[in-house]
Design goal:
about 190 residues, alpha+beta, Rec A Protein, domain 2, three-stranded antiparallel β-sheet, 5 helices
């Protein structure tokens, strides 16, 4: 067994009994194991101690780039031209292990934007995705509809802009989600 794996296992045995009412976050990278014929060839440095002692294990993968049409300055021609600028990444998150009580093997996608201060997830993106998950907003082809919220927008960009710029709409969506979640927890 490698030295790092022994160190991690020893450290986790000492830390675990004392972790009452707190959260410790470990960020680990994934590497490829050479010569694996069957099963997953993915492995993490530090052995399997983190996997055994963790209560929640999330796997995050880059799912693509977030691009927005913006003019780009062409140095050779000394003028602006049409082009796409990368403003963030789409991230796919999957729950691999969950001992906290929610369903395991849940998955979600979210957009991580660089242009925010501080960089992170845009609340409007998160709101409409949760609203769609609970059925408040319906997507038919490229059109987003909701009779309760008076929404009829074509295209993700226009739809996200509408939610991002309308604080009253954001508040209505928040209230609807909170009401639905509180009903589920009270039963």
């Amino acid at each position: 067994m490698g030295e790092l794996a022994q160190l991690m296992s020893r450290g986790m045995r000492k830390i675990t009994p004392q972790m009452k009412g707190c959260m410790v976050i470990f960020i680990n990278q994934v590497r490829e194991n050479i010569g694996v014929m069957w099963g997953s060839s993915r492995t993490t440095p530090g052995g399997k101690a983190l996997g055994f002692y963790s209560s929640l294990n999330l796997e995050m993968n880059k799912a693509g780039l977030m691009k927005e049409p913006r003019p780009i300055f062409n140095v050779d021609k000394q003028k602006f031209e049409d082009g796409d600028t990368v403003v963030g990444h789409n991230i796919h998150i999957r729950s691999k292990k969950d001992k906290t009580g929610s369903r395991p093997e849940q998955a979600c996608k979210l957009g991580f934007r660089y242009e925010l201060e501080p960089p992170g997830v845009l609340e409007a993106d998160e709101l409409w995705q949760v609203a769609m998950m609970h059925g408040f907003i319906v997507k038919e082809g490229r059109t987003f509809k909701s009779s309760e919220l008076d929404i009829h927008e074509v295209g993700v960009g226009a739809f996200t802009d509408r939610i991002k710029n309308d604080s009253e709409l954001q508040q209505k969506i928040r209230e609807m989600i909170t009401d639905k979640i509180s009903i589920k927890t009270n039963e």
